[in-house]
Amino acid sequence: MKKQLAIVLDFGSPYSHLIARRVREHGVYCEVVPSTKPTEYLIEKEPLGIILTGGTSSVLASGSPLCSAELFNAGIPILGIGYGAHLMAHLNGGVVSASAKSECGEVTLNIAKPTSPLFNGAQAVSTCWMSHTDEISTLPDGFSTTASTDACSCAAMENPDKKLFAVQFHPEATVTDCGSKVLANFLFDICGFAGDWKMADYVKNTIAELKAKIGDKKVICGLSGGVDSTVSAVMVHKAIGQNLTCVFIDHGLLRKDEGDMVEEMCLSTFKMNFIRINAQEQFLGKLAGVSDPEKKRTIIGEEFIRAFEVAGKKIGKVDFLVQGTIYPDVIESGVGDAALVKKHHNVGGLPDVIDFEEIIEPLRLLFKDEVRKAGLELGIDEALVWRQPFPGPGLAVRIIGDITKDKTFILQEADAIFREEIAKAGLDRSINQYFAVLTDIRTVGVTDDSRTYDYTVALRGVTTTDFMTADFARIPYDVLAQVSTRIINEVGHVNRVVYDITPKPPATIEWE
Ligand code: XMP
């Protein structure tokens, strides 16, 4: 049976992949396609529905991204969102003009036409997320308004005969009350999707695609020890077996005992080709005296490459390099239009020193929770799949200020205690990321009647679904108290423990 496909036609919105993820959450397979692809290409793929994303341009500006007007006559159901809604109006003879009052944020949405198939089951009045400075001022022939807000007379429109629907607001945003319903109505009632796509299909298809792409060529994968690189490696291993060599560079900035756990998993559980490079001294040497977070990342990125070079020499020429990049890494690294937040060392071109042809990133389109689902589908142990996300630069971005062996040891011990207590309290699945940070602050304390001048450890715990925004986890005081007592009693040179209560934004999850 032919795979049912939804296309998300990307007009440059930073949320295009979030829309795709929402579509997948409804059990519908979907691909994000750049708006520059010709209409014939889109039609040939025989999608059951197309979603036009928002974008950062104005349809009124010259050179703004367009699709062809014929797309709207192809008989394929289309949902335009934000900029996509404007395009639908503009290319069908309507008028888009600058709004008298732009809207950005949570706004009250009034359904004007409750019989609209898009709003079936939605509340008459609800909250939606708006972000626009233009609006549809004259509807194209054959269209009618289906929703409005105080400032926007056409917050949604439709031409049900042509199966064309548009919303000015953002259904992908969680604050849009009817967002999930609108997408479900579009996908199921209007497009006719069965909604039976599962992560197992993604895994199966990706393995098949990897097999076809790689053939009997050689692949190298850098394992960081984190969930993303583990899942990527196992996926490629399932596709090509022993033609994959995993290289694990131990930079000495891993969590307590983690290096040995990674080795055990690769060698015993999955029986992979595995090379461990113990580069602890090399990394610490290069990092000595460096306090600037981005400099630390750059150094670690460079040293990884050096270490890879060593591994590369052992392995010889390879055709592909696998990386465990996931979607939030892609946008937070400023790939595409999104602004740079942090330079994630694991994204971007590795220089010419490594002899490989191409990078493979099997998880590039997935969010963290989807990566975990994929990991379970691949048969990876739950304990491994549910490990904390861990940044490539490791504890380097959790030791504020310069890095030394002693500080690394203190942090590893404190972090292990924190993780142990969180697991004991049964909170390890509900808190999405939690770890200790060794601040560069030393303060006065008192132990056994003696004055101490020691480090402050900060604990960080966040709840999030996509790691792009996050709230601090409401860890019960008695759990925090137990962690604090244990850290003070069991780890030397720490006399103060604090808990970080800042959401993201304005803070980031990591301290550096
Ligand atoms: P932030 O601190 O940017 O973190 O809110 C978002 C997610 O990304 C992880 N992170 C990194 N991962 N290399 C990585 O591979 C990095 O340089 C890096 N910095 C942050 C962080 O742990 C969180 O899950």
Provide the residue-averaged pLDDT.
Answer: 91
Low-confidence stretches: 334-341, 345-352
CATH superfamily of the largest domain: HUPs
Which band does the percent of strand residues land in? 15-25%
Ligand species: xanthosine-5'-monophosphate
CATH architecture of the largest domain: 3-Layer(aba) Sandwich
Q: Level of helix content?
A: 25-40%
Kindly report how far apart the N and C termini lie: 49 Å
Count, helices: 14
Beta strands, count: 18
CATH class of the largest domain: Alpha Beta
Task: Write the topology of this structure.
Blueprint: E1 6-10, H1 16-25, E2 30-34, H2 39-44, E3 49-52, E4 78-81, H3 83-90, E5 95-111, E6 125-138, E7 144-148, E8 156-159, E9 164-167, H4 179-190, H5 199-214, E10 219-223, H6 227-240, E11 244-250, H7 258-269, E12 273-278, H8 280-287, H9 293-315, E13 320-322, H10 327-332, E14 358-360, H11 368-377, H12 382-385, H13 405-424, E15 433-447, E16 450-463, E17 471-472, H14 477-490, E18 494-499
Parallel strand pairs: 1-2, 1-3, 3-4, 4-9, 10-11, 10-13, 11-12, 13-14, 16-18
Antiparallel strand pairs: 5-6, 5-7, 7-8, 8-9, 15-16, 16-17
The chain binds xanthosine-5'-monophosphate.
What attributes characterize this protein structure?
single chain, 512 residues, alpha/beta, Rossmann fold, GMP Synthetase, Chain A, domain 3, 3 domains, five-stranded parallel sheet, globular, binds xanthosine-5'-monophosphate
